[in-house]
Q: What sequence folds into this?
């Protein structure tokens, strides 16, 4: 299936990397994560380059919903129960700050940014909606109960997060990548032994790419993303929408609905 976003944007046309080069920081992959890293490193005056195997935004990024929200399923009820009030507040605040940052960044970019309310709804279970609202109330967030939402005719109830957002994420990527040090059609195929791997960003990048390239890494049953092994919690975590699985494959967290097939 083609991406709606790709079909309505002109590619950027960054050159491939020719020959050898040296850099303090190598960002592998020009998806949303890599491009934002490049943008903030450039702003901070750090020497970096970003290489993208194909064209920027052409990975998972081009197939996303393009919503910018702090609402990730019915997460807060669970988070409050498992992590306590302070950490749940931190999670919400970090997401609300990211939303503010996107609002600020999009201000200078022609990317169809629009403020929108976000909803999570249930067609049959009002209780889970009420539980979520009660958790949000405890952490001081002004979510609302809705008994009607756009497009879905009959619901048991919904949690409404006011003033969230949506945008054309590839127009955003094209806009924000102007002037960044990017090489397209440049796949990293091998990492030589290194000693100066200071930025955590780079370590994370290597792990993520390693996971993508290793055939033994399990795939998420939700939409097939490569899972990442979380050593601290001994779980398989999905970087795409946050599904999590125990070491033995049993599901811990949605949106996946079943465990891993081994
Ligand atoms: C269906 C779906 C919907 C989603 N909707 C949303 C949403 O609405 N809002 C939201 O915030 N998040 C959403 N997400 C999560 C989303 O995936 C992330 O927010 C983000 O787009 C992921 O960006 P990324 O840079 O991590 O990955 P990618 O976009 O996949 O970027 C990785 C890049 O690395 C490149 N690459 C890989 N290997 C190499 C190599 N060896 N050398 C060079 N380059 C390489 C790839 O070509 C690719 O371009 C959604 C995810 C999915 C699957
Ligand atoms: S692919 Fe969606 S949670 Fe893993």
A:
């Amino acid at each position: 299936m083609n991406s709606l976003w790709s079909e309505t944007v002109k590619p950027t046309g960054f050159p491939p990397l020719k020959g050898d080069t040296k850099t303090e920081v190598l960002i592998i992959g020009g998806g949303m994560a890599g491009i934002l890293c490049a943008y903030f490193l450039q702003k901070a005056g750090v020497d970096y380059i970003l290489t993208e195997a194909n064209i920027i935004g052409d990975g998972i990024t081009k197939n996303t919903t393009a919503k910018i929200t702090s609402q990730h399923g019915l997460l807060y009820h669970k988070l409050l129960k498992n992590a306590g009030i302070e950490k749940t507040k931190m999670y919400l605040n970090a997401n609300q700050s990211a939303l503010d940052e996107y609002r600020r960044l999009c201000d200078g970019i022609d990317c169809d940014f629009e403020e929108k309310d976000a909803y999570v709804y249930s067609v049959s279970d009002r209780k889970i909606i009420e539980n979520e609202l009660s958790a949000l109330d405890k952490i001081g967030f002004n979510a609302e109960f809705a008994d009607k939402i756009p497009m879905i005719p009959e619901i048991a109830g919904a949690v409404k997060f006011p003033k969230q957002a949506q945008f054309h994420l590839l127009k955003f990527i094209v806009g924000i990548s102007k002037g960044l040090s990017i090489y397209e059609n440049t796949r990293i195929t091998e990492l030589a032994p290194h000693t100066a791997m200071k930025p955590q960003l780079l370590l994370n990048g290597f792990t993520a790419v390693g996971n993508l390239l290793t055939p033994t890494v399990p795939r998420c049953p939700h939409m097939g993303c490569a899972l990442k092994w979380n050593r601290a919690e001994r779980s398989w975590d999905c970087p795409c929408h946050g599904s999590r699985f125990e070491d033995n494959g049993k599901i811990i967290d949605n949106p996946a609905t079943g465990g891993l097939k081994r």
Notes: DSSP finds six helices and eleven strands in the chain.
